[in-house]
Specification:
Layout: E1 17-19, H1 23-33, H2 41-61, E2 64-70, E3 81-87, E4 92-99, H3 103-116, E5 122-133, E6 139-148, E7 156-161, E8 164-165, H4 169-181, E9 188-197, H5 198-207, E10 212-219, H6 225-228, H7 255-260
Parallel strand pairs: 1-10, 4-5, 4-7, 7-9, 8-9, 9-10
Antiparallel strand pairs: 2-3, 5-6
Length: about 260
């Protein structure tokens, strides 16, 4: 039986960049981005969006197996057994929380994996980092303040759920850390975002072309008219999804602030 094949946005960035084309999810993401949307609705929508997005990631990226299950009807009939394809429950997985915007998405994915896989093989790590900006508010790097890594990554699916894929600096730094500092060889590394920009995709393609990227929406609102009227990725030199302080346009605003009701 073939795995689920969701609708993906047509683009020419490459096969590792999977942007969903799902009107249900984009509707709810649009509601999240509205100025009037506040707590607690912000976090409800984000958790729901990640639940749906993670279903597609699991369906399409995790190993599967054929299994037979004895159902409750087996006491009444010898036909009371179900056979079919399931997610391989003995898959190892690591969820990476990039605090603070990534904490809720990470917790949501961690819960889902514990209900899908053998929980003994599921781990949640934590990384504490933030954008480093100059006096003009422009991003110039990443500040690390600590991490809590609970083991190696050998034969694990490593998941990094971070809502806004803007410049790609923080996520690229986290991936480099796992590749270079965490022991073992990962089965694959997957990042998950509500919104990504063309800038983010270019950064990941340059730094980590092996990484698989999932997103609900692509934003490139500051691109040229020619680029916006073409298939995404056709004119990469004319694509841009950031303002002068590297926030996504049109984007959703500062989700880290909104998710925590903390604006400093």
């Amino acid at each position: 039986m073939k795995k689920s094949q969701p609708n993906f946005l047509e683009h020419v960035y490459g096969e590792n960049y999977k942007i969903l084309d799902d009107v249900f999810l984009t509707t709810h993401l649009a509601n999240l981005c509205k100025e009037k949307t506040k707590q607690p609705v912000v976090n409800y929508i984000i958790a729901d969006l990640y639940s749906f997005l993670f279903k597609e990631v699991i369906n399409n990226e995790f190993p599967t197996k054929e299994d037979t299950v004895r159902t409750r009807m087996a006491n009444l009939t010898p036909k009371g057994f179900w056979s079919g394809t399931i997610i391989e429950p003995e898959t190892k997985a690591v969820i990476v929380d990039i605090a603070r915007a990534g904490t809720l998405p990470s917790e949501t994915c961690f819960k889902i994996l514990n209900q899908t896989l053998n929980p003994d093989l599921v781990r949640q790590d934590h990384i504490y980092m933030a954008r480093k900006t100059n006096d003009q508010g422009q991003v110039v790097g990443v500040d690390w303040s600590g991490s809590k890594i609970g083991g190696d990554k050998q034969d694990s699916v490593v998941i990094i759920p971070d809502p806004m894929g803007a410049t790609g600096g923080s996520v690229s730094s986290a991936i480099s850390y796992y590749k270079n500092e965490v022991a073992g060889t990962a089965l694959k590394i997957i990042t998950m975002h509500l919104i990504v920009t063309s800038n983010y995709i270019a950064k990941l393609k340059q730094d980590h072309p092996d990484v698989i990227v999932y997103a609900i929406r692509l934003d490139r609102g500051t691109s040229s008219t020619k680029a916006l009227e073409s298939i995404p990725g056709t004119y990469p030199e004319e694509e841009d999804g950031l303002n002068e302080t590297q926030y996504i346009v049109p984007g959703a605003g500062g989700l880290g602030e909104l998710m925590n009701n903390s604006y400093c």
